[in-house]
């Protein structure tokens, strides 16, 4: 991979990842989409039928395989959180970019999204607590931090492309 995007749900990893890959004239991979394709069922069903631990195992294996490919990788909101995944990211030496968003922006982007099991499970306080709890992990894994509030994908991509 040439770049990996990490960050909490709703920070724009997929949107920015696609646009960054286009800018860099390379492939885009979305970890959640790869997991869904491999499992043959949506993330909500994996969580509901097999539990979060099964999802995390699939996520780690898919991350390990995908880091070896070329292109831009958009991860899931929990990917960079576990120590094992943080080690995979560090060992890959791929630039890791943390996309941030304010609490308000995050809620506006993810509330009422039925495709995200953690959004379904948690209330607003729980979701924001998870966001704040994860922030130090994202920070530790990141080589670059990019704010996304009130900025367009084009502006965000141009900042990342210049830094790369
Ligand atoms: C998760 C975020 C989701 C997806 C899964 C778990 C998380 O990805 O991987 O629902 O733990 O934050 P997005 O950040 O793309 O919503």
UniProtKB/TrEMBL annotation:
Pathway per the UniProt entry: Metabolic intermediate biosynthesis; chorismate biosynthesis; chorismate from D-erythrose 4-phosphate and phosphoenolpyruvate: step 5/7
Cofactor binding annotation: Binds 1 Mg(2+) ion per subunit.
Cofactor: Mg(2+)
UniProt cross-references to InterPro entries, sorted A to Z: P-loop_NTPase, Shikimate/glucono_kinase, Shikimate_kinase/TSH1
Binding positions (substrate): 32, 56, 77, 134
Reaction catalysis annotation: shikimate + ATP = 3-phosphoshikimate + ADP + H(+)
Subcellular location: Cytoplasm
EC number annotated for this UniProt entry: 2.7.1.71
Keywords: Amino-acid biosynthesis, Aromatic amino acid biosynthesis, ATP-binding, Cytoplasm, Kinase, Magnesium, Metal-binding, Nucleotide-binding, Transferase
Keyword Ribonucleoprotein assigned: no
Superkingdom classification of source: Bacteria
Residues reported to bind ATP: 10-15, 116, 151
Coiled-coil annotated spans: none
One of the Pfam families matching this protein, by short name: SKI
Annotated residues for binding of Mg(2+): 14
A GO term for molecular function: kinase activity
PANTHER family, A to Z: SHIKIMATE KINASE, SHIKIMATE KINASE 1, CHLOROPLASTIC
Oligomer status and interactors: Monomer.
Family the UniProt entry places it in: Belongs to the shikimate kinase family.
Function: Catalyzes the specific phosphorylation of the 3-hydroxyl group of shikimic acid using ATP as a cosubstrate.
Name the record gives this protein: Shikimate kinase
Naturally occurring in which organism (per UniProt): Lactiplantibacillus modestisalitolerans
Lineage: Bacteria, Bacillati, Bacillota, Bacilli, Lactobacillales
